[in-house]
């Protein structure tokens, strides 16, 4: 969606390095450099004149200009989109962007048709940022590059909680990349939109991706990792809780002492002795415990482990995890899948429809155009009906139990 360009006012900055005079009808900026190349940057402003977007298109992106941008980022808190489209960029440029990204408020980055020599796009996801959307369409990404990118989105990596949109359309991703994407989706619960159109994924890769959208058994490694994470969280929770509780009780004792002394000043040593002797009542202790718990959650957050006890259960002696219900949009068009993928997808949609919990929606849009599919089939009709019902649920809100029973009867 295109932003309003502040009454569509766009500033074209031209970095000129030649000694020729500037054209009178061009708003230009002359920058000293060794080469003789013009750099065009489009800056979009909002209605009150604040910078909201920078766009490089069909031009070079010099590192020195990104270094200047790094210095300006702290003063441009409304800049939320960076577009570098159809531009030759270097590894140094991507390193510079990854340096200023954590300090910025940028939520959307587009690198469409701007392949890196080493495809090291994973640098953008290594640290905690505000990034929510990353578009890497037509960037010559292969399975190895895909593996590096999605590894940065697996729990508990910093970017696994922030990125909601990932577009990898028209690249060279095969079934191996599909398997890595599936591994990421087993633990990522923030990604909502995934575009894999125009790649080379067959039924094998599609089955891998679809399998994590249904309940799946945990591997021994995942079980061990889950236990370690839970122990680490409980240890951290206990340490923070005890500190918060102690601070609250100390504050209560000091307040109680001040109330009893009528506000008169005492010697510090005597005050401390008497304060320790003050014993809070049962109500005060309960209140302190409640406040300490709230403070602890505020500091370390809730345990959002994807393999938590609420999301896992034992079945026939194996530990299973509920399917990924966070992914809402999946584009698998123009790959190499057959009708078998449609059959599997129908199974996925039925599982999600019967297993949704409150505030969950599951898949509401799946695009399969351009694959080796029949013109018409029973499973295609079933898939269309399931998608329509999923869309209706999203518009109407989460279903209650009685509504779910009615849908199952249908």
UniProtKB/TrEMBL annotation:
Residues 7-19 have a biased composition (Polar residues). Pfam families: LRR_6. SMART domains: LRR_RI (SM00368). It comes from the Eukaryota. Residues 1-28 are annotated as: Disordered. This is Uncharacterized protein. It comes from Leptosia nina. The lineage of its organism: Eukaryota, Metazoa, Ecdysozoa, Arthropoda, Hexapoda.
